Structures are given as structure tokens and as C-alpha cells.
Amino acid sequence: MQEIALILSYIVIAYMLFSSLSYLGLFALAYGKVKKENKLDKRESTEDFLRNQSTYPVSILVPAYNEEVGVVSTVRSLLALEYPEKEIIVIDDGSKDSTSLRMIEEFKMKKIPFAVRTHIETAEIEAIYQSSIFPYIRLIKKANGGKADALNAGVNLSSFPYFCAIDGDSILENDGLLKCMKPIIESDGQIIVTGGSVRIANGSTISRSKVELVGLPKSPIVIMQIVEYFRAFLIGRLALSHLNILLIVSGAFGVFNKERVIQAGGYNKNTVGEDMELVVRLHRLLREEKSKQRIEYIPDPVCWTEAPESLEVLRSQRIRWQRGLLETLWNHRKMMLNPKYGSIGLFSMPYFLFIELLGAVFEFIGYFIIFGGFFFSLVDPQVAGVMFLVTVFYGSLISALAVLLEELTLHKYPKVSHLMRLYFWALTEAFWYRPLMVLWRVRGIIATFQKKAHWGDMKRKGIST
Amino acid sequence: MNLTHFWILIASLFLGQLLLLLILAWRKQQSNKRESIIDRQYKLLTDSFSSHMMDPSDERFITELNASPYRLVVLERLLNHYVSVTKAGADSPAVSRLSEEFLSERYMKLLKRGNWAMRMNTLYFIEDFRMESLVPQLKEKLAKSSRLDQETQQLIRTLASLNETMAIGALAKYPDASARLYIDVLKRLDELTKLDELDIALKDENTNQTLKHSAISYIGMAGITLFLPRIEEELQHPEMETRIQALKAILHLQYMNSPSALAPFFQSTAWPERMFAAQIAGKLQLSRYKETLGELLGDPVWWVRYSSAEALTQFSEGDIVLTHLAESHPDRYARDMANQWKTSLLGSEQ
């Protein structure tokens, strides 16, 4: 038994060191990219697009399920977006609350007949409404079919060549869409998808659907999620995007070339990770066509969203995410280590399998060995000690590094005290937050085999005040 | 490696991070302090700046500006704000004079030695403030560039904003330069120069098709009706892309000398030509094509059906025609489309 535990210990230690080094490698790649654009005057670099007739019009899709608290403020924030031509389509996916009613009342919407092109099959469309104040706001009321189905319905109704998918309780920064479209326009369509950064709004002051003052929440659970988002967005996505092997564009905020999405078959209704699955399918399409088109992550355009404050909701969110990751990797297993798919098959897919998915399993074993080593002599305490230190390195120091990267580059949090609090909370990650995440992520892997799809239910308080 | 080695490794990484954290915290504090001073100075100088812009003989602003420790940054922000909020800001002689006097030396240095982001910002500001004295430096920089990257693109735009026609020639060096970039250049030239360049671009001997398409497109966008006869001639062009650009331009110009030239496009095998023809017939209210629009409502392509129905709404009795078609058109999709348009005024924010 002890021998097996010892061998396992060495494997886990080697794995964690390897993972940490790969994170540091990604960090080095990300740093160069963000640092280069750090001092660029963002206003100057986008103002030309604001007045330019060549700026592609965009359809903004807002899938909503039981979002009566946040949907109106989300649409209001979209109205305030600086963008020359846009339409806003809210898709009520059979909500049980008053999502549609809130929209109809607030924007004085009227039922209209509409000749929808069915590019992608969806659940039954019950009615389409149009605002009489802002004719470019529409609402699709449809039977429940899941988030992917709702987005597909939005794609069918949209009239413009690009669409932006945004969650029903998120707030986009005024110039967020313009900044996301900039690389698409500048590349003359060679970039087919751009994903923006998602930030946590809890703790910030939001009024009239606009983030007025960036702040930190009191709840340690939310602060840890902020740190986690830094780690995921600033280190992971940016570096992967730099190599054109980014597999995830957040469902909360991304811009897509509609024709390409339709060609790929739209969002997949049979997975809970529809955002990642679509991006992988688009990569697959591009590689099979030997196309030079790209998928990019833009660190600066920010979409603010409400993070779960209770452990229960966080747990279900993380289980869902992990399940989505596993389902996507399984659905596209053909691409894994397949040279036909280039760096996606040879690097990105294995990276997501070994680091993002199985990382939870290795870490779980690691925590088990630390506990067993210190309290039940499962392994030599020296080995358990090394494991502990590696876990701290992997869990806490990398996250703390992500906080420093944010401050080095984007520095969105204005006060020195924000930086200090974020850094010191990041250091505690390996001791309480990470074990919880590991447990839930392992639970997510198990949940994949129990197949039960549903929207991520979350008690919204609403982020706008 | 044993436990001690790991302790040393982790401890040194932690200490390294701690040091970086302290440096960043100090930097943040300094930058917050600096920003707050600049902000205060900006507010303090706004009043005298406004007076100076209205009456350049009021020297109070210059005196106050010279006394400011961050005068270049403050002036840059004041000018930038002025240019973005006032209509004639960019062409204001006061903006050029102030920027030339205070900022040209700094910009010259930044163009040579600044990092990428700072060079880009400098190019934006030179364009905004119309700093003609920097043209030789910009040309020199352009001569050295060999790739049409973001910086070269902005360099070309900046030169165009200073009315340098060589910007078009510089773009032509790159076969992959897009129509969007040519349009960016054309729209920045002054009115007379622009007309000359458009004239050259439309001539048959011009073999640069991207430039020609950009010129046609720009004429439509800018509504330069002077070129309408030339655009109408392009409707006969053997290349489809040129004909489509001409149709688009006519749609924007909202006028045609000979509407009969539109007739062949309703039967075109290319759906974009049918779609634009339908849109033009609607926009120009060409009632002779009303019946054709009714037929196109049953076109196999969704966009053509959509545009035909939209076009019919432009006519005074469009509602009646659409109501009739919604009931009697032999094609089911045509009936759906007519139904949609008769009841709603579909819109998008423009």
C-alpha cells in the first residue's frame, strides 16, 4: 500500500511541477502580448470605427432563463453601447418567472409576425416581440430547450453578419463591443471569433447599467473567484489565443461570424459546455478546410457579471463547467493528438485534457496523500511535505502571480488596498478554496456520466443598483 | 531534491513575488498620485484653455501651462478633448499651433524611440492635431517599413490626414491592402485632392481593382453625386464585383439618371445583384419595377425576398400591395415575408 502511495506521490509531484511550469510558460507568453498594448490609448484606437461605415453591424443575442432581475439592466447597458449599428435580441427560453413580461413592459414591446430563416432547428418559437420605442430590440419567446437552443434561435432571427452572445445578467463596458469587433474589422474577416474578458461585478458600484466604480466584494468566496478569473483569462486564454489554439470563448461574452457558426451547425444542445464545444467545432472546421482564419481573445473588452456568493450555487456552476469540458473533449476525441488538426490536436486538446480536466484528479490524489502522510503515515512525511509545498506553488503562487500580471498590465482595480487584498487572498487559495474546487471538479467528471442537462440556476440579486 | 530544496524554492518564489508586489503597490500609489495631480491641473486649466481657443491673444493659458509640471500631458489631453468634442477641432489653427509649439519635439522623439503603444498613440495625436511639421519624419518612417502591420496602417492614415497623396501609392505597394484601408485614406484627404484622386481611381487605365472598388464605395458613402454618371457607367462593367459596388453606391446616392439601366439586374444569376436592384427600386421609388418586386418576393434567396418586401414598403400604397401579396402570392415564403413587412416597420439602430 505504502509503495503504491509513494509511486502515486511521485507522479502527482511531477505532474504538478509540470503543470506549474506550463502555467509559467503561458504567463511569459501572455505578459508580452498584454504589455505591448498596455499603454495604447484605447479611445484613439477605436474612435475611427465608431464613425466608420465599414464597421460591420452586429446582432447582440441575450439568452435568458429566469432572468427577471437582471434582463432589463443588461438590455439597458447594451443600449448604451458605443457602436454604429446593432440590434438586440433577447431570447426567453421558456422562463418560469416574468423575464418576458419585464421586457415587454419596460420596452413597450408588441407581438410581430416574423419570417425567421431556420438555419438551425430549435424548440418551438411561441412569439416574437419588437419594441415600439427601440425597433431594434426584439424578444423571442420560445419553449424551453436550453441555452444552446436559445442562442440558435437568436442566430436564426439575427439579421447581421456577426453576432455577440452575452449572458442575461451581464453588463458590457461601453466600448466593449467596439474593441471586440476591432480585430475582426482590421483583419478583414480573417478573425472569425473574438472573446472578451469576463470580470466579476460583485463589490463594484454599478448605476444606470454602467460600472461607475470598480471595487472588491467582502465575501472571500467571491474574491477567490476574481483571482480565478485572472488566472483563467489573463494567463490561460491570452497565451492560447496568441498561439491560435484557444478552445474557450466565454459564453458570457463573445463575438462570432454568423456564417461560420451556421456552417458549423450552431450551438450543440446536447452539452452543458456549449460555448467551448462551439469553439472547438469551429477550430475543427477551420483545420479541415485548411483555413487561415483565427479565433482570438481580447483581454481588454470587459463584460461584468455576477458571481455566485453561496457555496451551493458555486458548486453547481463548477460541476457544470467541468462536465461541459469533459463532454467537449469526448465529443471531439478524434482531434486528440491527431496531427491533421495541427497545434489544436497536438497541443491544445492534450493541454485541456491533462491540465484543465485531469488536474482536478491529480490534485485530489495530492490532497489525499498530504492528509494521509501527515496523519496516517500513508507516505513518508518528507514526501507529504514536498507534496504540500508543490500544492502551495501550484495552487497559491500561480494565482498570486495572476494578480500581479493583472496589476502589471490592465490594473483595473484602482486602489493599492485592492491589490493587497487580492494578493493575500490568492495566497490562501491552496488551503481552503482549491480543495473545494478540486472536490467539485471531480464531482463534475462523475456527473458527466449521469447526464442531466439544465440551465445554471442561480439566485440573482442583480448587479445594477 | 529533498524537502529543504523545495522549501528554498517556494520561499524564494514567494519572496520574489512579495518584492514584485511591493514594487507594484508603490508604482500604483505613485501613478494614482500623478493622475490626481494631472486631473487637478486639467480642471484648473480648462477655463483659460477655452478662453485661449476663442481668443488666441489671451495668453493666460500659456502662462499657466508653462507653470504646470505635467504641461505636455495636460495639453495633450486638453487638445484631444477639444478635437473630439468640437466639429472643426481638427482643422483649428489654434490646435495646430499649440501642438506644434509644445508637442512636436516630444512626438519626434517618441516616433523614433517610444515603444509600440506610444508610437501608435503619437500617430493618432499627430493625425488629430494635424501636425504638418512632422510629415518628413512620417515619410522617413514609412520608407523604412516593409510590412503592412497596424503601425504602418496608422502611419498611412496619418499621412493621408495631412493631405499627403503618397499615402495611396504607399498602400498600393501592398497587394493585400484592403478596400477598407483605401477608404480610410480617401476619406482623410481634403475635398479637392480627394476629387482628383477619385477621378484617377475610376479611370479605365487604373489597374488597381481594390482602389477602384474603394473609390466607388466611398463615392456612395460620402454621397458625391458629381461622379454619378461615372458610377452608372460601371453598371456595364464585365466584372461582377465592380457592378455590385456600383449598385451599392447608387443605393447610397439615392439617385439614377437612367433607371432603365437597373432592369437587367432583376434577372441576374447573382443574388447580390438582384438584392441591390430591389433595394434601389425601393429607395428611389421606381414604380415601374413594382410588379418585378412582387415577383422577386418569391425569389429562392432569403435576402432577395427580404429586400423586395422592404422595397415595397417604400411606395405610398406599399401596405396594400403587401397585404395583397401576403394573401395571393403563390409562394409560401413570399407570403410569410409580405406578412412580416406589412405589419412591422423593422428597424435597426443606425
Description:
The complex is a heterodimer of chains A (465) and B (350). Chain A is α/β, with parallel strands linked by helices. Chain A is 52% helix and 16% strand. Chain A has helices spanning 2-37, 42-50, 71-79, 99-106, 147-157, 176-186, 220-242, 258-264, 274-289, 311-331, 342-357, 359-376, 381-409, 416-427, 433-448, and strands spanning 58-64, 86-93, 109-112, 125-131, 137-142, 162-166, 170-172, 191-200, 205-207, 210-213, 253-257, 294-305. In chain A, the strands form 2 sheets. Chain A has a 10-stranded mixed sheet with strand order 3-4-5-2-1-6-11-8-12-7, sandwiched between helices. A two-stranded antiparallel ribbon of chain A has the order 9-10. Chain A starts with a helix and ends in a 17-residue tail after the last helix. The relative contact order of chain A is 0.15. With 350 residues, chain B is an all-alpha fold. Chain B has 3 domains: 64-164; 179-257, Alpha Horseshoe (Leucine-rich Repeat Variant); 268-350, no CATH class. Chain B is built from 19 helices and no strands. Chain B starts with a helix and ends in a 7-residue tail after the last helix. Classes of the chains: A alpha/beta (465), B mainly alpha (350). Chains A and B meet through helix 2, helix 13 and helix 14 of A and helix 1, helix 6, helix 8, helix 10 and helix 17 of B.
